[in-house]
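Reviewer 2 asked us to include a model.

Predict the structure of this chain.
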Amino acid sequence: MPVFEGAEEAIGRILAVRVLELDVAAWLNDGLGRHELPEPVREGLLSNMADEARHDAVLTLAASKFRLSTQQDDQDAAALKADWEAHPDHPLVKAFVLENAVFFVILPFMRLFGDAALRTVARDIAGDETGHAAFHRQLAIDLKLSYSRSLDRLRRKTVEWLFSGVKCSTPFGNQRKFTP
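Predicted model (structure tokens):
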């Protein structure tokens, strides 16, 4: 079985919402154009943008392999993508909120309930996202940018959609071996 029994729907939605990876790269690029930033910061943002493209590629491969998302999942993910894109908060803020409050929820779930391939993907992406999230959050603080209540509501809506209907207990309770 590719994923832990009962986690199939959530993993399908997680793989459908991968469409937001490239939005993060676009928001970082937009942020580059809005502010005069020191060269090391610009280089950091460009490097993080390249990582987002790599994340999108590997998650797209995983989605093709597992085929767990439904047509409705893909439509819902597209609608969430449109909501994130249209949101008026600063693009750097949207990037750090998405990384901190959505991706950091998704990745541990993939590690707990996915097969070896999904655990590896999640571990590798988490390594990048840890640095990205800290970098983007600090940049937003330095630029005196903050997120709005409406962005917080969108974050909650996204996470609630991802995990609605999860019907599995933890792998630990079911004697499944998990290696962090």
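Residues 86 and 145 are 18 Å apart (CA to CA). The chain has a mean pLDDT of 88. We have added this to the supplementary material.
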